[in-house]
Design a protein that fits this description.
Residues 49-175 form the Cytochrome P460 domain. 26% of the residues lie in helices and 30% in strands. It is built from 5 helices and 6 strands. The protein starts with a helix and ends in an 18-residue tail after the last helix. Bound molecules: heme C.
């Protein structure tokens, strides 16, 4: 066996030892979605390859959260939550907000999601890796808009996110009642 083959085999065996979560999830998240200074980026492939946790609809154009809200996470993060009842290190939650389309369909008065407007992102950090303004209460918090998805436009966790998430404090700041995939 060549050295390369031996290393490849060792890597495969390591992966097999962590099939769905654990070291693997955190390694991937803090390599691909968070840089060494704690800057969070918007994962690009959530709708293609992550799991859908659930949806909310705020059908009032004047409400602060008007729109269709679809929430996604990595498959391994959902499995870890179902196994342990807790969000594992490296879990990423994405809430995509899209506009509301509506029409009379053969099913009835239907509402569906239009173009993406913003993405809210939370990144679970159980190791307290970062302490900047976008990190607090065990999570990193970020907000991206459709016209500039590379820029986190959240001012800070305290100023932009915390107040609204207080009602979910008992469930690790996540509104888990909306996510049947976690049950
Ligand atoms: C106007 C109140 C409000 C603000 C501001 C807010 N959130 Fe939320 N967030 C909610 C509510 C309520 C839900 C679940 C229900 C819904 O989406 O209507 C939610 C859901 C989420 C979700 C899906 C997972 C979960 O917690 O249920 C993420 C991710 C999220 N928010 C991140 C953020 C981040 C990051 C910020 C700051 C940049 C932020 N939120 C600011 C109220 C808010």
């Amino acid at each position: 066996m060549t050295m390369t083959n031996a290393l490849g085999l060792a890597a495969l065996l390591t992966l097999a030892a962590f099939p769905v979560f654990g070291a693997d999830l955190a390694t991937t998240t803090f390599r691909d979605h968070v840089d060494s200074e704690g800057n969070i980026s918007l994962p690009a492939d959530a709708r293609d390859s992550w799991v859908h946790l659930g949806s909310w609809v705020v059908d009032d154009a004047d409400a602060p959260g008007a729109g269709f809200h679809d929430v996604y996470t990595q498959p391994g993060a959902a499995q870890a939550y179902r196994d342990t009842g807790e969000f594992a290190d490296g879990t990423v939650l994405i809430k995509e907000i899209r506009g509301i389309e509506s029409a009379e369909m053969t099913t009835g008065p239907a509402l569906w999601a239009g173009e993406p407007q913003v993405w809210f992102v939370m990144v679970k950090d159980t190791q307290e890796r970062f302490d900047g303004p976008h990190w607090g209460n065990g999570w990193g918090w970020a907000l991206f808009k459709a016209d500039a998805p590379d820029v986190n436009v959240s001012e800070s966790f305290e100023n932009t996110c915390k107040g609204c998430h207080v009602p979910a404090q008992q469930t690790d700041w996540v509104f888990v009642e909306g996510y049947p995939t976690l049950e």
